[in-house]
Amino acid sequence: MSEAPVSQGLAAVLGLRQLIMDGELGAGDRLSEVRLAARLEVSRTPLRLALAQLEHEGLLEPVAGGGFVVRSFTGRQVVDAIELRGVLEGAAARLAALRNSGPRALGNLVACVAKLDRIVAIDGAPTGEEFELYVELNDEFHNELFVLAASEVLRDAYERVLALPFAQPSSFLKAQADTSQFEPTLATGNAQHHEILNAIEAGDGEEAERLARGHAELTVRNLDAVLRDGGFERLPGSSLINAEAGWSRQVAAGLEH
Q: Domain containing 52: what range?
């Protein structure tokens, strides 16, 4: 009996987040607890906890008089979120290098890069299945940095950033899969994975941090490529992003500094 509230709470968080990411709930929409509880098939108590959780993650904001609306984000905020992820990944890579206890500890990271190598080495564009595997392994590489850093503080901060719909390492790769920029992006990204791994193996925390922070800049470049290719609507959570005048300039500013 005691597991029911936990199960409903998780269902409410995941379901509500998915409605937002899929665009069923768009920026500025005011949320109705009654309708959402019915839509997600949960009771009001776990739904309220889910609303509070998504407010904490930054996807919702409270309104005067009570309740929540779905947040919207500017281009500058998108770039800032990506750069913050880079700062956190840089700190994790530095700690991973400084706390490196030997080859066995790095085994998962080494194996992950080796699997990525095999996908990048395929002639021509990867198949859909191969691309999905690349995305999964790419996310695994980034997560493993925090495993090796062994810092709960960094991990908690990282997970909060990743809750935003555009901050994940693979966000814009998914929207880029059908563009001419796809294959070079995979090769460039994996070459950077090798450089980060080498710095961690060498115990060079300063270099590992520099490389990991630079690696995050590739996400901004991927975003720029998606915008130029007209693939904005393919972005996860694109309904939350204000793509009005100045959006491309804001992204370009992120590339320049």
A: 3-70
